[in-house]
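FORM 7B: Structural annotation worksheet

SECTION A. Query
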Amino acid sequence: MASSSWKKWPGHVRDKWRDDLRDIDFWFNGYRKTNTYLHLVRQLSRSHHVLWNVGVGPMASFSRAISGMAVEGNPKYRGKHVIKVDLKPTPTAEEAQGIELSLISTKYQLAVAAAMELGLLDQGYNRLKEKHDEIQYYSYGCDKGDITVRLLSYVEYNIVSQIIKQLVNERYLLVAENLQWPIEPGSLTLEDVGLPPPRWLNSQWLISTTSRDVYNKSKSNIDGVISIDEDDQVAVLILFSLHQSAEHILNMMRQESKEYWHHIALQCFHYAMAIFTKHAQVAAITSDELIHHWVAEGILPCMAIKEEEETSTVNSKCSNMHRLGRVIVEAFQKYSLLQLPFSPANDAYEATNTGTQFIAYHDLIAEGITADELFDNRKQMISFTGDHGCHVSREWLSLEENMGATALVLRGCSHQSVILPKLDHLLPNLCFLLVLDLSYTPLKLLPSYIGCLQKLRLLSLRGCHDLKTLSSSSTTNAIDSSTNISSSSPLSTLYNLEFLDMNGVPVSVMTQDVANQKGNLIHLDMSHSEISTFPHNFFADMSNLEELMLTSCSNLVELPPSMASLSSLTTLEVTRTRIKYFPQMIFEEMQKLQSLKLIHNKKLISLTGPISGFQIIKLEGHPNIVSFMLIGTPHIRGFSVRGCRKLESVEIKDVSGLEEIDLSGTSIKELPDEIPNLPQLRRLLLGGVPSLRRFPWHRLVRLPDVFYLDHCSEGNGNHSNQVSHVCVTDPRFFRSFTDTTVNLVRDGLFFQSFYIQVKPCITNSMRLQDEESRLDKKGELLRNQSTYVDVYNSYFTKEIAIASPITVPLHRTERHVDITGMQERHDGLYDLLKVTKSLSVTCDTSIDEFYYLSSITELEECELSWCHKMEVLFRWHSPTNLRNMHVCNLKNLVWFCSQYSSCDFSTLEHLHLEDCPRLEHVVLHGTSLPCLKTLDILFCYNLKTIFFSNNTQVNIYGLPSIQRIRLQELPLLQHFDNKDALITAPVWKELHIRGCWSLRRLPCRQGCLPKTVKVNGERSWWSKLQWRSPLHLDSYDPKLPPEFASFDERAEMSSYLR
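SECTION B. Predicted structure
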């Protein structure tokens, strides 16, 4: 709709509205009885099956109010189901990086919203959605797996059909908000979304767009459109939007009632109307300033958001009110009531953009006022812009009787203002003022009678660039610098002051009297001042100060020791100063400090006082600090916030000389990628950081030489100066470790040596206690001097993870990963293991197949133990560089290599299989084992053959490098191979056998045999062996125990062979 077609508001109608708006009941429910409201409801009940909501005015404003009225005002027409969906805006190309666009498509969102309304989002969908969100979170949106396809397919083939089945015979109302891009007419088909066409059973679609252009490109010829072209209709929408805002505030605060928050929102809106007039302001008011005004006026209750109240231990009046104020501002913006920065409208059509612009343009609330009317008790909130004054005075806004003006806003008044030169005459009669805003005025001296305002809570001098002293004038003209100047400041008597805003005031000297008896002050902003030092005791009387802003104080070289008195301080910002250090012990006294920002303090070298040598920022063990920002401090070499248990956010930028960072013992949730990429960083410590659930591996271009990260320690764990040590509880921590990261590691840019542990924290303590207990038992047995002390010693030594001397131990390489006690799949480790050279997996109940070992091309050492769910190790392929393989206590392992595999162990030198009671075979005949030197198989009670084949033509296999074979407690083992084939083993030296009573034949060796194989086994077993020929027998040299030691050879063996 063009501005030319906007209907002019008749004067008498506007006057009637102005009168109605003086009644509080009209704001709450009275407007619902007006003809305008009833006509608008009827308009929203039009019989079109598809009704487009294009909002009001050039910004398509109040679309949410229109939709809300359509749903609320037509209960008979809307049918059994009301399907509401707030369409997520499509991101820009830059924002879309890493975002699955298909999941924010209009069709997908509509289908999910319909399913939610109908209760069709089942466990299958919830599992896939949870998995998808999890993967996107841990991978920073970079994972391109198939989970998105699976989720979309599930909705398309499982959910949509159920929507069709449930809605095909039922009437429904679809309310879609915030359609940002055009859709083709008729594209929302039954098969795509599951919504039957609305004409089938007289259903209705109400679709709100963000612009009329979207509507024009999406509509069909038979669709209807809601057209708002009258001012009184906009007025109704504003009042309805306040209802919606109250509901939004209630949902966020979860306290009180909707009526309570409606009253608060109404007061905040009216106060805003006293500030935002139809006349342009010199400087736009910020949301923080507006909230400060609301607090000082007593509109906002001191109330914390419910969830934050339960988790926070610091009760901060300022922060609580700020959060509530931001919720209200957010609600006003969401429902088109307010847009910051505010700009007055130039015409009636533009005035429909927001509620504040509309009401200001039509003068519906604020009334004109002259300087002579300031003392009228009915004038409550007063503002002047030049010679234009207005006031908002609604007795029903306050339960108390009006005693006079409580707020005077002279923001941006110039020299020509009729009121600014008269301030000293006016202020003595405004003794009930709570708010005095003199921001952006040409004051050169403070009016002396400001000191008379004993109830004043907020004084704003922001942007008074000519005010170079806080002393007062002794004459009546505060903007004339030629007057006499008093030695004392009128601020000295403002004992109830809570907010003092001097941002942009170029004072160079602060006197002590300004700060005396300021026990109620909670916010002080002295940014952009020219002060160099403060009086020694300047902050001594500010024990309740919560926010201190010292931004761009370029002359400030020193802070006073009285800052230690700021025991209630929660926010401290010090930026662009010349200070070198902070007074000693101040941070030890600031126990409630939650946010600390140190930005572009080029000369800063310490937080703890003057020091020599290593320049370090150290704030260790602070109990309440939540966020810390350190930017642009080139002299700093070290940074430590160790033990700050509540610290959640750290931002470090432009600190090019930083060499050491210690974030141990904190609650940080995100690590900015700028930190590990700092060019001079040599040491990064992150011990005891359980809240750090992900890491920006994909954004790394370097990593410090010393890198220590531990989810489980208390921040005091041991770390190595040679190896990066990472101990995490969740393998998803490495989900962002991508192919790009792998290539950088292979190119030698970082992470050349690492020791990574993946295990639950409880495993660490339990394992330690278990080891200590077993060591105690071992010591007791040693003291008893048992006859078989070596056997027991070997047993207990094995239990505490020390390998048997005869077994080639697992060598922990320079790139080692240790996985212990996992109960879920190792999602996230796939790419990390591509650069891993040694791997140990213990007590894992999550995997039944080590499927990703086939892609671990650099793996050399591998140990698997107590993984009872695992049934097969290598189903298809095997690692190409594997040298040492230990497999112990896999109770369900059936196949070491699948009978269908094409494994190639061309580099394997040592294979150890132990306590795998279901293992039947080891490897196929065709498996290449050219480097195998030792083969140990122990306590595998179901093993029948070592080498197996279905090929009847196989008659020979080779072990060219085998030197020792050890077989123990294999009661079903009958042959080395199921075809009794020949073996080529030219360097075979030793064969150790115990408890293999079914083994009747040793392999027949082929070719020239330079040496015999020494056989160590039971006498009775040796005597029952079958031989092909004398030459077969001569190829083995028995080394049997003496006869007197062989009387009970079938006794169960529980120790290891020597």
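SECTION C. Observations
The longest helix spans residues 761-784. Residues 235-361 form one domain.

SECTION D. Sign-off
Analyst initials: ____
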